[in-house]
Write a structure and sequence with these properties.
This is 4-amino-4-deoxy-L-arabinose transferase. Keywords: Membrane, Transmembrane, Transmembrane helix. By secondary structure, this protein is of the alpha/beta class. The protein has two domains: about 5-355, no CATH class; about 385-505, no CATH class. The protein is about 55% helix and about 10% strand. The strands form three sheets. A four-stranded mixed sheet has the order 6-7-10-9, with helices on one face. A hairpin with an 8-residue loop joins strand 4 (about 385-390) and strand 5. Helix 1 (about 5-25) runs antiparallel to helix 4 (about 80-105) and helix 6 (about 140-160) packs antiparallel against helix 7. The longest helix is centred in the first third of the chain and has 27 residues, at about 80-105. The chain is elongated and about 75 Å long.
């Protein structure tokens, strides 16, 4: 790519970023329309960190610190909670802007392809929906989008041959990106590191390997200086606890379904076919082998993510377009690239259109998620009375919370406060533990805002709450089994139609 073309790419990608910024500025705060429990989970983590809690050491979660830090920094800088969440996404897109431009001009051979790559990365970073085909907005699972945006940078650098050589720039981008993956969502690092390392080795990029290792380890070392070695010990403990937990090994379809079910088989077979084409027709080009190693990791990440969107097909399709450039015999490769993009069009369009949809939502439909943070708003009708369901043929009459999670949490907080049980750290049995956001309760030290198994934080709880209804009644049962196994005594102190409350007595 010539300098003039590179300048055009810079201007165009910067224009995309500018458009995202303008759309974000046209509406104050953030309005979401689904996944209230996930939003409460995010808010819980952000407000705990703003209040001085240390991730992993004081709060149990498998999510990495850098997946929350932009929100926390902006909240501490004085922005409202909704504004901090929205502009935190823009901040991430801004941090990725220059690395994205470098990858685009050094690997993507034409201006349209370079622009497409840049737009993909920026919209993944700044989108307001996880993907899927449901147009309602939410920042649920934002860390998955961020990790896709970040990992596309090193993958493109190692898969595609360089149009511009600069070992320092390549190494800096690869090292920083891989370090970021460790501290956003470690699954992505584990899944894609083999392809990145293999790509560097096959392309004989010794200097890039050294530079990327130095940059990556340097950033992780800087995090260690700030947080201490205890941070890493606690982070690893959280990751291992979740990996060993039977509660939530994957939030969607099974591994085989994500790979070969009717919804995903076309993308998988296309990927395998393109690898075979590259290995058969372009034996001297290592891209085929790198893609072959990348594919299992890509499918595994999709399996791990809610919704199971195969967003890896975005990069796959663009890569095939680049490799097909300028060769008549490679037209079939370009066709496969077009098909790859078509297979992932629905979630891609949903993400790309989300900043525009945010400003078009009717403001009258929203109300604050929490009175203390009026610029973070959800759909009013979804905050109304909680809805519970019972199986008609069940003897135990277990209640499943079917909707109204915000109203449910508000009501439980109000009942407990009216009974004089506020002002103390509380363990709530069930899927999520965000009672402190709605009443005079202390956040539970060492607790988990989202349940992954075990009894995290129970030793710091003075009050134990057993809701009548839960999104996951089986989680309540697991908690009670753990309580019995550890010899913890629960002294009943309050009960009504909504919940039962107990005083926690730990075994001596």
């Amino acid at each position: 790519m010539q300098n003039a073309q590179a300048g055009r790419v810079l201007g165009l990608i910067a224009g995309v970023f500018g458009g995202i910024v303008v759309l974000a500025a046209l509406r104050g705060g953030f309005d979401f329309a689904k996944h209230e429990t996930d939003m409460l989970h995010l808010v819980d983590l952000v407000l705990r960190l703003e209040g001085g809690a240390k991730l992993h050491e004081d709060v149990m979660t498998p999510l990495g610190l850098w997946g929350l830090l932009p929100f926390v920094v902006l909240k501490e800088a004085g922005l409202g909670l909704g504004a901090a969440l929205k502009w935190g996404q823009i901040l991430v897109a801004g941090l990725l802007l220059l690395p994205t431009v470098w990858v685009a001009v050094s690997r993507f051979r034409t201006v349209p392809l370079a622009l497409a790559f840049g737009a993909v990365v920026l919209f993944l970073a700044a989108g307001m929906v996880y993907g899927g085909d449901d147009v309602k907005l939410s920042l649920s699972m934002h860390y998955n989008r961020w990790a896709w945006a970040v990992v596309f940078l090193p993958l493109a650098l190692v898969i595609l041959p360089a149009e511009r050589e600069n070992a320092l720039a390549d190494g800096a981008v690869i090292g920083a990106a891989m370090a970021a993956l460790v501290l956003i969502k470690a699954t992505y690092f584990v899944a894609f590191a083999p392809a990145v390392v293999l790509g560097l080795l096959l392309r004989r990029q010794g200097r890039v390997i050294v530079i990327s290792a130095a940059v990556g380890l340097g950033l992780l070392g800087l995090q260690t200086l700030v947080s201490g070695f205890g941070f890493w010990q606690a982070y690893l403990a959280d990751l291992l606890a979740v990996a060993r937990s039977p509660v939530r090994p994957a939030p969607g379809q099974g591994w085989a379904q994500v790979m070969l079910s009717p919804a995903y088989a076309a993308g998988t077979l296309l990927a395998v076919g393109s690898v075979l084409w590259l290995r058969g027709r372009l034996k001297d080009e290592p891209a085929g082998l790198i893609l072959a190693v990348l594919l299992p990791g890509a499918i595994y990440v999709s399996y791990q993510n809610f919704g199971n969107d195969p967003l890896w097909l975005l990069l796959w399709g663009l890569v095939l377009f680049v490799l097909a450039q300028g060769q008549e015999k490679r037209r079939s490769l370009g066709l496969m690239g077009a098909l790859a993009l078509a297979f992932v069009a629905a979630p891609t369009i949903n993400i790309a259109m989300s900043p525009l949809r945010h400003i078009l939502q009717p403001q009258a439909a929203f109300e604050p998620l929490m009175a203390r943070h009026p610029d973070l708003r959800g759909v009013s009708v979804r905050f109304e009375r909680p809805l519970g369901t019972y199986a008609l043929d069940a003897e135990d009459r277990v209640c499943t919370l079917a909707g109204g999670s915000v109203a449910h949490m508000r009501a439980m907080a109000a009942r407990l406060e009216s009974a004089g049980l506020g002002g103390q750290p509380t363990y709530v049995a069930g899927l999520f533990n965000t009672l402190w956001l709605y009443g005079d309760f202390e956040p539970l030290t060492d607790g988990a805002p989202w349940y992954y198994g075990g009894l995290p934080g129970i030793e710091n709880a003075r009050l134990f709450v057993l809701p009548e209804c839960s999104f996951k009644p089986e989680f309540k049962a697991l908690v009670m089994e753990e309580i019995a196994a550890r010899g913890i005594v629960l002294e009943p102190i309050y009960q009504d139609d909504l919940l039962a409350a107990f005083r926690v007595q730990l075994p001596k």
